[in-house]
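Supplementary Note 3. Input sequence used for the single-chain structure prediction.
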Amino acid sequence: MQGAARVLVVDDQPNIVDMLATVLRFHGFLVATAGSAAEAVRRASADRPDVVVLDVMLPDGDGFDVCRALRADGHEVGIVFLTARDAPGDKITGLTYGGDDYITKPFSVDELVARVRAVLRRIRPAAGAPPAGVLRHADVELDEETLQVRRAGRLVELSPTEFKLLRYLMQHPNRVLSRAQILDAVWSYDFGGTSNVVDTYVGYLRRKLDRHGPPLITTRRGFGYALTEPGT
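The predicted structure, written as discrete structure tokens, is reproduced below.
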């Protein structure tokens, strides 16, 4: 990666903020902090962090609202939710709102650092990686440098996770990819194989792509999904 990554830690408990900031700085990250939802949005807009470690329960709202606000403003920052909630539905909610990962308390600081680094690998090109290019399939173009997607020449606005999902499908055209493969490639870890987060994001991606042309993503029931040619 080029340069130290910037991380914004958002939590209303000063002891947790101090601990996370200390650990992340020790591992070479540039760290800013915020203690409320409003401050988080302000700091993210001003500092443009690469990753936000975002507590769900905040005194003036919740992390899901912050995530929605950042995505609505076009922020492509990686978002790692940090919360005491451990119900599967909460995890799906966080990821559906545009989050990239979800860690439940109590957690180990090593796990947090590993998760932050995994998100960074997905949103920033690795040092020494070959130059990014343009992927093409049918009338879809995905530019890995500008992070833009066009279909039939029209710009398609995608969230970072939707972009990564489409890129993975375009890297393996006409091949049936299982949910487990997609989870591993797009989210970098498994939810136990029972989460419907893949189905949710495929649905989002389909709706956005299908606005500008015939369907491209095919469901192979019992197997997974494939990016196919129109009409197949």
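Helices lie at 14-26, 37-47, 63-72, 88-96, 109-123, 160-171, 179-187, 197-210. DSSP finds eight helices and 13 strands in the chain.
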